Amino acid sequence: METTKIEGTLRETAGNVKEAVGSIAGDTRTQLEGAANELRGKAQQLCADASDLARDTMASNPLAVLAGASAVGFLLGALWASSRRDY
């Protein structure tokens, strides 16, 4: 996952530069593309961090993760069953 985080950092930096160039040049499209790339890079970094955290949690306490996944599955099933009754 370290590669994904590095890619996110590079994408964020490139987006920041592109946004600055668009701002200096007065090109709104380039500026918006840069801002979008910057946000995409930040999102990629957050996703990599969340994946690392989930992997570490599963490795250190698998029973808690299993219980949590079971609870979420039960709740989703209950919601789905209750929404089917309305039809």
Automatic annotation (TrEMBL):
Domain CsbD-like per the UniProt entry, residue ranges: 5-56
Do you know which Gene3D superfamilies this protein is assigned to? YjbJ
Q: What is this protein called?
A: CsbD family protein
Q: What are the alphabetically sorted keywords of the record?
A: Membrane, Transmembrane, Transmembrane helix
Could you list the residue ranges that cross the membrane? Answer: 63-81
Return the SUPFAM superfamilies for the record: Hypothetical protein YjbJ
- InterPro entries named among the record's database cross-references: CsbD, UPF0337_stress_rsp, YjbJ_sf
**The organism's place on the tree of life at top rank:** Bacteria
